[in-house]
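Hi support team,

I've been running sequence recovery on a batch of backbones for a student project. Most finish fine, but this one hangs at about 90% for roughly twenty minutes before it completes. I'm not sure whether the input is malformed or the queue is just slow. I've pasted the structure tokens below so you can try to reproduce it. Let me know if you need the job ID as well.

Thanks,
M.K.
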């Protein structure tokens, strides 16, 4: 029988969906521009561009997330770029195993004069303690103990901009 505190190498997937009263083109800029992501994801501490110019498949940057009170510096690369419907970011390095990676998948579709945004975070080949894994699932579904879910923050920013306010 496995120890409940043991490390698990299996894939973990976190998913979330939000309906935003703003067109996909406006929502898109909040997810495709790493600097804009800092406005709705409080875990992002720093963005350092490696590639320059417009974002595209293959665009790379370094991103520092604060996870569990520790800063982790990842290499981020845009794996898929279909403006304004799909963005896939692949994260490597940081505190991940050499073959470990995280994929952040964002899918946008126009719906009910707004945008349906689907987010999927795929964590592959990463050693995660089962208790930490459960905590990650709870925080992703309910938001952090002291704040809102990240996609709710993004929704508020995009809708505020649609109503004439700019971030």
């Amino acid at each position: 029988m496995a120890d409940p505190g043991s490390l698990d190498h299996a894939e973990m997937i976190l998913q979330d969906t939000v309906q935003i009263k703003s067109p996909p083109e406006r929502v898109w800029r909040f997810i495709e521009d790493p600097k804009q992501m800092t406005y709705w994801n409080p875990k992002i501490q720093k963005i350092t561009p490696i590639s320059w110019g417009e974002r595209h498949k293959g665009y790379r940057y370094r991103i520092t997330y604060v996870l569990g009170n520790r800063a982790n510096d990842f290499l981020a690369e845009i794996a898929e770029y279909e403006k304004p419907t799909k963005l896939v970011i692949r994260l490597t390095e940081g505190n991940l195993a050499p073959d470990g990676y995280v994929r952040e998948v964002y899918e946008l579709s126009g719906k009910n004069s707004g945008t349906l945004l689907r987010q999927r975070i795929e964590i592959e080949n990463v050693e995660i303690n089962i208790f930490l894994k459960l905590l990650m699932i709870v925080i992703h579904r309910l938001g952090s103990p002291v704040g809102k879910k990240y996609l709710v923050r993004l929704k508020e920013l995009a809708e505020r901009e649609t109503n004439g306010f700019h971030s």
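--
Follow-up from support: It reproduced on our side and the slowdown came from queue contention, not your input. Strands lie at 7-8, 12-20, 44-49, 60-67, 70-82, 86-93, 101-111, 114-124, 128-129. No action needed from you.
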